[in-house]
Amino acid sequence: MAATIIDGKAVAARVRERVAAEVSDLVESAGVTPGLATVLVGDDPASALYVQRKGEACEQAGIASFHHELAADVPEPELAELLRTLGDDEAVNGILLQLPVPDHIDDDAMTDLIDPLKDVDGLHPQNAGLLVHGRKGLVPCTPAGVMELLDSAGVELEGAEAVVIGRSRLVGKPLASLLQAADATVTHCHSRTRDLAAVCREADVIVAAAGRPRLVTAEMVGEGATVIDVGTNRTDDGLVGDVDFEAVRERAGALTPVPGGVGPMTIAMLLSNTVEAARLQLERARAAPGPRPAQPVRR
Ligand code: NAP
Fold first, then answer.
1. What is the mean pLDDT of residues 11-21?
2. How far is the CA of 42 from the centre of ligand 1 (A)?
3. Which ligand 1 atom is nearest residue 266's CA?
4. What integer pLDDT is reported at residue 290 of this predicted model?
Protein backbone atom coordinates (compact mmCIF):
# COMPACT_ATOMS: atom_id res chain seq x y z
CA MET A 1 0.00 0.00 0.00
CA ALA A 2 1.30 3.48 -0.86
CA ALA A 3 2.61 5.57 2.04
CA THR A 4 0.68 8.36 3.70
CA ILE A 5 2.23 11.62 2.54
CA ILE A 6 2.99 13.91 5.47
CA ASP A 7 1.92 17.41 4.45
CA GLY A 8 4.56 19.79 5.79
CA LYS A 9 2.75 22.85 4.46
CA ALA A 10 -0.37 22.02 6.46
CA VAL A 11 1.58 21.25 9.65
CA ALA A 12 3.64 24.43 9.22
CA ALA A 13 0.45 26.48 8.78
CA ARG A 14 -0.85 25.10 12.09
CA VAL A 15 2.43 25.93 13.84
CA ARG A 16 2.29 29.47 12.43
CA GLU A 17 -1.28 29.93 13.69
CA ARG A 18 -0.21 28.69 17.12
CA VAL A 19 2.75 31.10 17.10
CA ALA A 20 0.51 34.04 16.11
CA ALA A 21 -1.75 33.24 19.10
CA GLU A 22 1.29 33.03 21.40
CA VAL A 23 2.52 36.41 20.12
CA SER A 24 -0.86 37.98 20.97
CA ASP A 25 -0.68 36.42 24.45
CA LEU A 26 2.81 37.83 25.03
CA VAL A 27 1.73 41.30 23.92
CA GLU A 28 -1.34 41.12 26.18
CA SER A 29 0.25 39.59 29.24
CA ALA A 30 3.71 41.16 29.24
CA GLY A 31 3.61 44.03 26.76
CA VAL A 32 6.31 42.33 24.72
CA THR A 33 6.20 42.14 20.93
CA PRO A 34 8.74 39.48 19.98
CA GLY A 35 11.35 40.73 17.51
CA LEU A 36 13.66 38.85 15.15
CA ALA A 37 16.82 40.38 13.67
CA THR A 38 18.20 38.78 10.52
CA VAL A 39 21.76 39.44 9.40
CA LEU A 40 22.79 38.74 5.82
CA VAL A 41 26.42 39.04 4.76
CA GLY A 42 26.96 39.30 1.02
CA ASP A 43 24.50 39.06 -1.84
CA ASP A 44 23.95 35.33 -2.41
CA PRO A 45 20.49 35.28 -4.07
CA ALA A 46 19.34 32.05 -2.34
CA SER A 47 20.29 33.38 1.11
CA ALA A 48 18.65 36.73 0.31
CA LEU A 49 15.44 34.93 -0.63
CA TYR A 50 15.45 32.84 2.58
CA VAL A 51 15.94 35.96 4.66
CA GLN A 52 13.15 37.79 2.81
CA ARG A 53 10.77 34.87 3.43
CA LYS A 54 11.68 34.86 7.10
CA GLY A 55 10.85 38.57 7.35
CA GLU A 56 7.47 38.07 5.65
CA ALA A 57 6.63 35.12 7.90
CA CYS A 58 7.45 37.25 10.95
CA GLU A 59 5.06 39.97 9.85
CA GLN A 60 2.25 37.46 9.33
CA ALA A 61 2.75 36.13 12.86
CA GLY A 62 2.90 39.60 14.45
CA ILE A 63 6.63 39.35 15.14
CA ALA A 64 8.68 42.50 14.54
CA SER A 65 11.52 41.97 12.08
CA PHE A 66 14.76 43.90 11.73
CA HIS A 67 16.95 43.21 8.76
CA HIS A 68 20.64 44.02 8.45
CA GLU A 69 22.63 43.60 5.24
CA LEU A 70 26.41 43.76 5.20
CA ALA A 71 28.72 43.74 2.19
CA ALA A 72 30.42 40.45 1.30
CA ASP A 73 33.80 41.94 2.25
CA VAL A 74 32.69 43.34 5.60
CA PRO A 75 35.53 43.06 8.15
CA GLU A 76 34.77 40.44 10.81
CA PRO A 77 35.02 42.96 13.70
CA GLU A 78 32.20 44.98 12.10
CA LEU A 79 29.91 41.94 12.01
CA ALA A 80 30.93 41.10 15.56
CA GLU A 81 29.99 44.63 16.66
CA LEU A 82 26.56 44.33 15.03
CA LEU A 83 25.89 41.01 16.77
CA ARG A 84 26.86 42.54 20.13
CA THR A 85 24.62 45.57 19.49
CA LEU A 86 21.69 43.30 18.65
CA GLY A 87 22.43 41.31 21.80
CA ASP A 88 21.96 44.50 23.84
CA ASP A 89 18.85 45.65 21.97
CA GLU A 90 15.71 44.92 24.04
CA ALA A 91 13.48 45.03 20.96
CA VAL A 92 15.40 42.11 19.49
CA ASN A 93 14.55 38.72 20.99
CA GLY A 94 16.03 36.54 18.26
CA ILE A 95 19.19 36.92 16.18
CA LEU A 96 19.66 34.95 13.01
CA LEU A 97 22.97 35.13 11.19
CA GLN A 98 22.20 33.68 7.76
CA LEU A 99 24.73 30.95 6.95
CA PRO A 100 26.95 30.35 5.12
CA VAL A 101 28.99 33.50 5.62
CA PRO A 102 31.95 34.43 3.34
CA ASP A 103 35.18 32.49 3.92
CA HIS A 104 37.06 35.30 5.68
CA ILE A 105 34.50 35.22 8.51
CA ASP A 106 34.79 32.60 11.26
CA ASP A 107 31.19 31.43 11.61
CA ASP A 108 31.91 29.58 14.89
CA ALA A 109 33.36 32.73 16.45
CA MET A 110 30.33 34.75 15.28
CA THR A 111 27.87 32.15 16.61
CA ASP A 112 29.64 32.27 19.97
CA LEU A 113 28.94 36.04 20.15
CA ILE A 114 25.18 35.60 19.96
CA ASP A 115 23.42 35.77 23.32
CA PRO A 116 22.34 32.12 23.90
CA LEU A 117 18.84 33.30 24.85
CA LYS A 118 18.58 35.08 21.46
CA ASP A 119 20.13 32.23 19.49
CA VAL A 120 17.02 31.23 17.49
CA ASP A 121 19.10 28.96 15.22
CA GLY A 122 20.07 26.93 18.30
CA LEU A 123 23.69 26.81 17.17
CA HIS A 124 25.42 28.41 20.17
CA PRO A 125 27.48 25.79 22.06
CA GLN A 126 25.43 26.53 25.20
CA ASN A 127 22.19 25.56 23.45
CA ALA A 128 23.83 22.56 21.79
CA GLY A 129 25.03 21.43 25.23
CA LEU A 130 21.64 21.94 26.86
CA LEU A 131 20.05 19.80 24.15
CA VAL A 132 22.50 16.95 24.70
CA HIS A 133 21.84 17.20 28.44
CA GLY A 134 18.08 17.09 27.85
CA ARG A 135 17.63 20.57 29.35
CA LYS A 136 15.55 23.55 28.22
CA GLY A 137 17.16 25.71 25.54
CA LEU A 138 16.70 26.86 21.97
CA VAL A 139 16.68 23.96 19.49
CA PRO A 140 17.75 24.25 15.81
CA CYS A 141 14.70 24.91 13.62
CA THR A 142 14.91 22.09 11.06
CA PRO A 143 15.28 19.25 13.60
CA ALA A 144 12.53 20.81 15.73
CA GLY A 145 10.36 20.84 12.58
CA VAL A 146 11.08 17.16 11.95
CA MET A 147 9.88 16.34 15.48
CA GLU A 148 6.66 18.31 14.86
CA LEU A 149 6.08 16.36 11.64
CA LEU A 150 6.58 13.03 13.41
CA ASP A 151 4.20 14.13 16.14
CA SER A 152 1.58 15.33 13.64
CA ALA A 153 1.74 11.97 11.85
CA GLY A 154 1.17 10.17 15.18
CA VAL A 155 4.47 8.26 14.94
CA GLU A 156 5.21 6.37 18.15
CA LEU A 157 8.82 7.10 19.04
CA GLU A 158 9.10 5.41 22.41
CA GLY A 159 11.19 2.29 21.87
CA ALA A 160 11.25 2.82 18.10
CA GLU A 161 14.40 2.11 16.09
CA ALA A 162 15.30 5.47 14.53
CA VAL A 163 18.08 6.03 12.02
CA VAL A 164 19.47 9.51 11.40
CA ILE A 165 21.58 9.90 8.25
CA GLY A 166 23.88 12.91 8.58
CA ARG A 167 25.71 14.40 11.56
CA SER A 168 25.86 18.15 10.89
CA ARG A 169 25.53 20.48 13.87
CA LEU A 170 22.54 22.13 12.17
CA VAL A 171 20.46 19.01 11.45
CA GLY A 172 21.79 15.51 12.16
CA LYS A 173 23.35 15.96 15.60
CA PRO A 174 20.46 17.87 17.21
CA LEU A 175 17.97 15.51 15.61
CA ALA A 176 19.68 12.46 17.12
CA SER A 177 19.47 14.14 20.55
CA LEU A 178 15.78 15.00 20.09
CA LEU A 179 14.89 11.47 19.01
CA GLN A 180 16.80 10.05 21.95
CA ALA A 181 15.00 12.43 24.29
CA ALA A 182 11.75 11.07 22.83
CA ASP A 183 12.89 7.56 23.91
CA ALA A 184 13.74 6.24 20.45
CA THR A 185 16.74 3.94 20.04
CA VAL A 186 18.89 6.00 17.72
CA THR A 187 21.48 4.82 15.21
CA HIS A 188 23.45 7.72 13.83
CA CYS A 189 24.87 7.25 10.32
CA HIS A 190 27.28 9.32 8.24
CA SER A 191 29.52 9.05 5.21
CA ARG A 192 31.73 6.41 6.85
CA THR A 193 28.88 4.13 7.91
CA ARG A 194 29.81 0.69 6.54
CA ASP A 195 26.43 -0.64 5.46
CA LEU A 196 23.86 2.14 5.44
CA ALA A 197 21.27 0.00 3.66
CA ALA A 198 21.41 -2.75 6.30
CA VAL A 199 21.10 -0.23 9.15
CA CYS A 200 18.16 1.53 7.48
CA ARG A 201 16.27 -1.71 6.78
CA GLU A 202 15.95 -2.31 10.56
CA ALA A 203 14.48 1.14 11.22
CA ASP A 204 10.96 2.13 12.17
CA VAL A 205 11.89 5.75 11.43
CA ILE A 206 14.49 7.03 8.96
CA VAL A 207 15.48 10.68 8.80
CA ALA A 208 17.68 11.47 5.80
CA ALA A 209 19.80 14.63 6.08
CA ALA A 210 22.84 13.90 3.94
CA GLY A 211 22.39 16.26 0.98
CA ARG A 212 22.74 13.34 -1.47
CA PRO A 213 20.02 13.07 -4.12
CA ARG A 214 17.96 9.86 -3.79
CA LEU A 215 20.44 8.24 -1.40
CA VAL A 216 17.65 6.30 0.31
CA THR A 217 16.20 3.74 -2.08
CA ALA A 218 13.18 1.46 -1.67
CA GLU A 219 15.44 -1.52 -0.90
CA MET A 220 16.74 0.33 2.17
CA VAL A 221 13.31 0.91 3.69
CA GLY A 222 11.43 -1.63 5.77
CA GLU A 223 7.75 -2.19 5.01
CA GLY A 224 5.67 0.45 6.82
CA ALA A 225 8.60 2.58 8.07
CA THR A 226 8.26 6.35 8.46
CA VAL A 227 10.69 8.27 6.26
CA ILE A 228 11.45 11.96 6.74
CA ASP A 229 13.41 13.60 3.94
CA VAL A 230 15.37 16.68 5.01
CA GLY A 231 17.51 16.81 1.86
CA THR A 232 17.14 19.63 -0.62
CA ASN A 233 19.25 19.00 -3.69
CA ARG A 234 19.13 21.04 -6.87
CA THR A 235 19.58 18.63 -9.79
CA ASP A 236 18.87 18.62 -13.53
CA ASP A 237 15.48 17.11 -12.58
CA GLY A 238 14.76 20.08 -10.31
CA LEU A 239 14.64 20.06 -6.51
CA VAL A 240 14.89 16.54 -5.10
CA GLY A 241 15.34 15.12 -1.63
CA ASP A 242 17.67 12.46 -0.23
CA VAL A 243 14.95 9.86 -0.71
CA ASP A 244 13.87 8.17 -3.93
CA PHE A 245 10.31 9.39 -3.36
CA GLU A 246 8.39 7.47 -6.03
CA ALA A 247 9.93 4.09 -5.19
CA VAL A 248 9.99 4.55 -1.41
CA ARG A 249 6.33 5.60 -1.23
CA GLU A 250 5.43 2.02 -2.26
CA ARG A 251 7.17 0.58 0.84
CA ALA A 252 7.04 3.24 3.55
CA GLY A 253 4.10 3.74 5.89
CA ALA A 254 4.50 7.52 5.87
CA LEU A 255 6.79 9.81 3.92
CA THR A 256 7.53 13.52 3.50
CA PRO A 257 7.75 15.01 0.01
CA VAL A 258 10.38 17.46 -1.28
CA PRO A 259 9.34 20.20 -1.62
CA GLY A 260 6.44 20.55 0.80
CA GLY A 261 7.71 18.39 3.66
CA VAL A 262 10.43 19.54 6.04
CA GLY A 263 11.13 22.82 4.18
CA PRO A 264 8.04 24.76 5.31
CA MET A 265 8.64 23.61 8.91
CA THR A 266 11.99 25.36 9.19
CA ILE A 267 10.57 28.88 8.98
CA ALA A 268 7.58 27.95 11.14
CA MET A 269 9.94 26.72 13.87
CA LEU A 270 12.06 29.87 13.54
CA LEU A 271 8.97 31.89 14.45
CA SER A 272 8.24 29.50 17.30
CA ASN A 273 11.83 29.85 18.55
CA THR A 274 11.58 33.65 18.45
CA VAL A 275 8.57 33.54 20.76
CA GLU A 276 10.31 31.01 23.00
CA ALA A 277 13.39 33.28 23.08
CA ALA A 278 11.21 36.23 24.12
CA ARG A 279 9.74 34.11 26.95
CA LEU A 280 13.18 32.98 28.12
CA GLN A 281 14.41 36.60 28.17
CA LEU A 282 11.35 37.64 30.13
CA GLU A 283 12.10 34.91 32.68
CA ARG A 284 15.71 36.14 32.87
CA ALA A 285 14.62 39.74 33.39
CA ARG A 286 12.18 38.70 36.13
CA ALA A 287 14.82 36.60 37.86
CA ALA A 288 17.42 39.40 37.75
CA PRO A 289 18.11 41.15 41.07
CA GLY A 290 17.20 44.81 41.45
CA PRO A 291 14.03 46.89 41.14
CA ARG A 292 11.38 45.55 38.80
CA PRO A 293 9.03 47.74 36.80
CA ALA A 294 5.57 47.97 38.39
CA GLN A 295 3.98 47.73 34.94
CA PRO A 296 5.11 45.68 31.99
CA VAL A 297 7.17 47.80 29.61
CA ARG A 298 5.11 48.47 26.42
CA ARG A 299 6.85 48.76 23.10
P1 NAP B 1 26.03 18.80 5.70
O2 NAP B 1 26.54 19.74 6.72
O3 NAP B 1 26.68 18.74 4.36
O4 NAP B 1 26.06 17.33 6.34
C5 NAP B 1 25.76 16.21 5.58
C6 NAP B 1 25.90 14.97 6.43
O7 NAP B 1 25.54 13.84 5.65
C8 NAP B 1 27.33 14.72 6.93
O9 NAP B 1 27.29 14.33 8.29
C10 NAP B 1 27.83 13.58 6.04
O11 NAP B 1 28.69 12.69 6.69
C12 NAP B 1 26.54 12.85 5.74
N13 NAP B 1 26.63 12.14 4.46
C14 NAP B 1 27.03 12.64 3.26
N15 NAP B 1 27.00 11.67 2.32
C16 NAP B 1 26.56 10.55 2.94
C17 NAP B 1 26.33 9.22 2.51
N18 NAP B 1 26.53 8.84 1.23
N19 NAP B 1 25.89 8.33 3.41
C20 NAP B 1 25.67 8.68 4.69
N21 NAP B 1 25.88 9.93 5.16
C22 NAP B 1 26.33 10.85 4.30
O23 NAP B 1 24.49 19.04 5.40
P24 NAP B 1 23.30 19.62 6.35
O25 NAP B 1 23.47 21.07 6.54
O26 NAP B 1 23.09 18.74 7.52
O27 NAP B 1 22.08 19.40 5.34
C28 NAP B 1 21.72 18.13 4.89
C29 NAP B 1 20.67 18.27 3.79
O30 NAP B 1 19.52 18.87 4.36
C31 NAP B 1 21.07 19.19 2.63
O32 NAP B 1 20.48 18.71 1.44
C33 NAP B 1 20.47 20.52 3.00
O34 NAP B 1 20.20 21.33 1.87
C35 NAP B 1 19.20 20.05 3.65
N36 NAP B 1 18.60 21.01 4.60
C37 NAP B 1 17.30 21.29 4.44
C38 NAP B 1 16.69 22.16 5.31
C39 NAP B 1 15.25 22.45 5.14
O40 NAP B 1 14.75 23.40 5.70
N41 NAP B 1 14.53 21.61 4.39
C42 NAP B 1 17.42 22.76 6.34
C43 NAP B 1 18.75 22.41 6.51
C44 NAP B 1 19.35 21.52 5.63
P45 NAP B 1 30.17 13.12 7.24
O46 NAP B 1 29.90 13.86 8.52
O47 NAP B 1 30.84 11.81 7.45
O48 NAP B 1 30.78 13.98 6.17
1. 98
2. 23
3. 40
4. 75
